[in-house]
Amino acid sequence: MSQTLHLIGVGKMGLPMALHLKTAGNAVSVSDTSQERLQLARAQGLTVASDMAAALAAAEVVFSSLPTDKALLAVAAQVASAARSGCIFVDTSTVSVETSAAAADVLQAAGVEYLRTTVSGNNKMAEAAQLTIMASGPQAAYQAVLPLLKQLGPNQFYLGQAEQARLMKLVVNLMIAQTSAMLAEALTLGRKGGLDWQAMWSVLGASAVGSPIVKAKSVQLSQRDFTPTFTVEQMIKDLQLILGAGQANHVPLPQTAMTLQLMHAAVAQGDAQDDYAAIIKAVERSAGLNPHQQE
Fold first, then answer.
1. Is residue 229 located within the same domain as residue 271?
2. Interatomic CA distance for residues 88 and 111, integer angstroms
3. Three-state DSSP state, 166
4. Which of 2, 163, 237, 270 is deepest in the core (most CB within 10 A)?
């Protein structure tokens, strides 16, 4: 059944999500602080809301895809002030547990159902509707929007009544970041010892460590293509959230802290806007290798 939806934030993740929801037959309007992103949304057939408050008041479900904790708090306040009572707010952002809980208080006071719906996958997976959905919040709200979530990817997981989805996203991203650190050390060792770069990727993909993410990364990285699906700077933000969660739960995360330092090294070396796997280049430089030259 068609629903009236509004989506806030048409970035690299939000825009394909809005398009999938529209393709499924829903009435979708969008808003964003970037005129460039709104122009792109218009060009792809989406309705850009001229009055965000009116769009929120009309929406049965509001989605958001936002870059920071601060942005989520601002949007939660807007939704709380303008959305109808009983509206479901589905936020897909990667934010801290503490900020999400603060947003929950604001939304509950306004009678808005708040579903934390984090996603695992990059922009290419969002475009292909291959995201993994991790949700927490009121179970009735989850069941109500499940047909919409199924338009975004093949796997949906309901994890609990509160902030479980936020923490699960950080758990997943911890392992993604650590995979990049593992690859950086292993590939640098192999390259310094004289192994062929592309041959290493072929062996790794066929070996016991050939996980889906290693195989996916090999498509670009075997060609030493560091075009970003998720930048070094974006991963720094997520690693800071992960370490904050570790501190809040008294969990030591020494390897994760070291990976954050490698990300900072990549920034210092000029690779901030490269894919987060650019920490491979940071480790190569520390081993006396030239990242731009193959032995």
1. yes
2. 9
3. helix
4. 163
Whether 111 and 158 map to the same domain: the answer is yes
Residues 158 and 171 in one domain: no
Provide the residue type at 149 as one letter.
L
pLDDT band at 295 (very low <50, low <70, confident <90, very high): low
293 falls within a domain: no
Q: What is the CATH number of the domain that holds 69?
A: 3.40.50.720
222-to-184, 199, 200, 278, 280 alpha-carbon distances in Å: 13, 9, 8, 13, 12
Is 295 within a domain?
Answer: no
Residues 173 and 243 in one domain: yes
**Strands (DSSP E) found in the chain:** 4-8, 27-31, 47-48, 61-64, 88-91, 113-120, 132-136, 155-158
DSSP-derived letter for residue 163 is S
- What integer pLDDT is reported at residue 294 of this predicted model? 65
Q: How far apart are CA 195 and CA 61, in angstroms?
A: 53
Model confidence over 171-181: pLDDT tens digits? 999 999 999 99
Average pLDDT over residues 152-180: 97
| Ramachandran angles phi, psi of 41, nearest 5° | -65, -45
Strand pairing class (113-120; 88-91) = parallel
pTM (two decimals): 0.93
Strands 113-120 and 132-136, sheet pairing: antiparallel
Asked if residue 204 is part of any domain, the answer here is yes
Single-letter amino acid, residue 100:
S
End position of a domain, from candidates 125, 145, 162? 162
Q: Give the chain's domain count.
A: 2
Provide mean pLDDT across the span 208-228.
94
Beta bridge partners of 115: 90
What burial letters (b/e) apply to 54-74, b meaning 16+ CB within 10 Å? ebbebbbbbbbbbeebebbbe
* CA–centroid distance for 110 within its chain: 27
Is 121:154 a contact under the CB 8 Å cutoff? no
